[in-house]
């Protein structure tokens, strides 16, 4: 057999082998598609567009953002769950990923079985933003007022079953009060009603509340995280009054189940490198966000805790998707 015929035979046999038996191409050899589960201009998208250009620099291949909003993030998640597990399609999602299993029990995917957690990127605390019609200035004052007027204080959120709604429900149950939840589909409308005194307070992300703090009688009286919020100096954590209370909005990356663990590890390393950029850290701080890297195994453990915590609350409160 001549050398040329031998080479031809080897090439032909290699072409017939299943992909796992072929020589693996170095990842990433082409652009990575990042499906963001919420619309352009929202908090998740804003963080993505800050972080992923720096991840692109580390990986040496473009990370192309594709927004697929709708159904509380489940449209994007389902698309990624059905994608090829080769590291070229990833999901950028948020707290709703851990909330939806209890809120929407007929999901077309299983968040545990169908995904590989890659990395948690950032955390953003929720805050209690009060308006001129609610005289409380501290969490103890708000609790006392709510106990004296059960059901009379109206609190807006971004929607039934949202992280902010659940933060309010957790507050009610932990403090033993009844503050009435009013879901809004439109954040500006809720803010207008807060200014006008038609509602007393909003539970919102720090990102949304920071521009309003100190304006027109609006003030943030507490945040729902553990660590101080740099852009809210002197504002305490709810946990200082209600020990153990915590409600964080978080953003994280997922890959389809079956994605090689070494690929997930490379993505996590790239994210870690991006988050070490001081300029990025400063920009995130202006949004009330903090780098919160957790790699795959630790992120999976964190997710299990989130799914259990919010699932138990949703079932106990009888909350259903709107």
UniProtKB/TrEMBL annotation:
<dbReference type="InterPro" id="IPR005064">
    <property type="entry name" value="BUG"/>
</dbReference>
<protein>
    <submittedName>
        <fullName>Tripartite tricarboxylate transporter substrate binding protein</fullName>
    </submittedName>
</protein>
<comment type="similarity">
    <text>Belongs to the UPF0065 (bug) family.</text>
</comment>
<dbReference type="InterPro" id="IPR042100">
    <property type="entry name" value="Bug_dom1"/>
</dbReference>
<dbReference type="Pfam" id="PF03401">
    <property type="entry name" value="TctC"/>
</dbReference>
């Amino acid at each position: 057999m001549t050398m040329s015929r031998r080479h031809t035979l080897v090439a032909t046999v290699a072409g017939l082998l299943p992909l796992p038996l072929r020589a693996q191409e170095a990842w990433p050899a082409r652009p990575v598609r990042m499906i963001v589960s919420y619309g352009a201009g929202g908090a998740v998208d804003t963080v993505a567009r800050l972080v992923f250009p720096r991840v692109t620099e580390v990986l040496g291949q473009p990370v192309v953002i594709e927004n697929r909003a709708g159904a509380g993030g489940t449209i994007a998640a389902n698309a990624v769950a059905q994608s090829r597990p080769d590291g070229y399609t990833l999901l950028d999602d948020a707290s709703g990923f851990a909330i939806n299993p209890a809120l929407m029990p007929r999901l077309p995917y299983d968040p545990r079985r169908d995904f590989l957690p890659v990395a948690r990127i950032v955390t953003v605390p929720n805050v209690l933003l009060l308006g001129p019609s609610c005289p409380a200035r501290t969490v103890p004052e708000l609790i006392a007022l709510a106990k004296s007027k059960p059901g009379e204080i109206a609190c807006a959120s971004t929607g039934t079953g949202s992280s902010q709604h659940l933060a309010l429900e957790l507050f009610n149950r932990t403090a033993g009060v009844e503050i009435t939840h009013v879901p809004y589909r439109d954040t500006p409308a809720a803010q207008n009603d807060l200014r006008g005194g038609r509602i007393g307070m909003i539970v919102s992300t720090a990102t949304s509340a920071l521009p309003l703090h100190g304006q027109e009688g609006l003030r943030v009286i507490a945040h729902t995280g553990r660590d101080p919020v740099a852009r809210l100096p002197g504002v305490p954590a709810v946990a200082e009054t209600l020990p153990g209370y915590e409600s964080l909005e978080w953003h994280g990356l997922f890959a389809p189940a079956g994605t090689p663990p070494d690929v997930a590890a490379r993505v996590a390393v790239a994210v870690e490198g991006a988050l070490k950029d001081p300029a990025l850290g400063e920009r995130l701080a202006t949004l009330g966000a903090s780098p919160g890297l957790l790699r795959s195994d630790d992120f999976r453990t964190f997710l299990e805790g989130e799914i259990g915590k919010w699932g138990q609350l949703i079932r106990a409160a009888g909350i259903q998707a709107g």
